[in-house]
Amino acid sequence: MDFDLVLKRLLEGFERLKIRYAAAGGFAMGALGAARATKDLDFLVHQDDLAGLDLLMTSLGYRKVFQSANVTQYEGETVVWGFVDFIHAFRPIALDMLACAIEKPAWSGTGRVRVLRPEDVIGLKVQAMANEPKRKARDAVDIEALASANKETLDWERVAKYYRLFGLDKEFEEMKGHARD
Prior knowledge:
The structure is a single chain. The protein folds into 2 domains: about 5-115, Beta Polymerase, domain 2 (2-Layer Sandwich); about 120-180. The protein has helices at about 5-15, 25-30, 50-60, 90-100, 120-130, 135-150, 155-165, 170-180, and strands at about 20-25, 40-45, 65, 70-75, 85-90, 100-105, 110-115. The strands form 2 sheets. A 5-stranded mixed beta sheet has the order 1-2-5-4-3. A two-stranded antiparallel ribbon has the order 6-7. The longest helix is centred in the first third of the chain and has 14 residues, at about 5-15. Helix 6 (about 135-150) packs across helix 8 (about 170-180). The protein is globular. It is α+β, with helices and mostly antiparallel strands.
């Protein structure tokens, strides 16, 4: 996937169509100081913007390969365009994540991209761990990397809220101890 090309085209389209978005997943981790390899782009988008999003994605040559109430996945025509996943924001917690997104530099500082706060990327990873236990080890590594990279400014209570939501209080205390070391 050509991340620069795809991201530039997506951001131009998001702005033109007034699509409310924030980067999530591996790309967001990198923007938040915890870089890791990723093969796709992930975004949180406002549910009311899904029709415009579909117009944008199809105009860029993507085809929808999956859609549920919670997520839409697109595949590009070629490997250059790759895969792009969109989490639908419609629940109060997700809408709050979207509203609290921050801007980060992109393209060596010549552009800006909205990114979920580190606490909220962690929250999505906690949800993924709770929903798919086989992902726990990988997501735990990502969470600790994000927490360590942002430990001086991290809102620990916001992070704890996500763990409590899924009954993972013990895991929160373990992660917090590792991240602060």
